[in-house]
Design brief:
58% helix; single chain; 2 strands; mainly alpha; 5 helices; Glutamate racemase
Length: 81
């Protein structure tokens, strides 16, 4: 499976737990852990849809680009008042 499969599953409203179980997310998480990855960054705007379900499967910290962008926008919005 590829991350494109994950995007298409999100757009088709496949339940997040089903995505983790059936679309290679669990295997991807296992690979990251085997490689001693320190954290996982989900950079696609589709991925927050299943981050919580994937977090239940891994001990690795996960980061979402959305969290970063939201923080940046909150800081920038002060300039527009």
């Amino acid at each position: 499976m590829s991350s494109l499969d994950w995007v298409e599953a999100v757009e088709s409203a496949v339940p997040p737990k089903e995505m983790v179980k059936n679309l290679g997310l669990r295997e991807t998480i296992t690979m990251f852990e085997t490689l001693c990855v320190e954290a996982v960054v989900f950079g696609c705007t589709h991925f927050p849809y299943f981050i919580e379900a994937s977090q239940q499967e891994m001990a690795l910290p996960r980061l979402s680009a959305d969290d970063y962008f939201l923080k940046q926008l909150k800081g920038t919005s002060k300039n527009f008042k």
